[in-house]
Amino acid sequence: MVRRTIATDRAPRAIGPYVQAVQVGEWIFVSGQIALDPETGDLVPGGIEEQTERVLQNLRAILEAAGSSLEKVVKTTVYLADLNDFAKMNEVYARYFPGEKPARATVEVSRLPRDARIEMDAIATL
User: What per-residue confidence (pLDDT) applies to 91?
Assistant: First the structure.
């Protein structure tokens, strides 16, 4: 299968040795996104709601650059710095996935890059 790297200016550049996403066949694997503003490279101000919103906007931009969309996401993994943020994260998440929901795992982690409150990755189809 052909492997294609996905990149867009509408989402933050990778802050390490990885790419925004990789397409292999009909599958798109989106790297974990934290709440970085693509224009400034800075973590967005605010709490878990604002950070979840930015993370999902970043995921959407990368998927659209690949020719996909949030509607075609089949699996996400959510990493939270504090599981007490779960309910507020879930409210924002539900707005971005109003129809069929993807499979999902949510885990609490000890720390995230740039001390973000949330990181999320996704797997989607074309």
Answer: 98
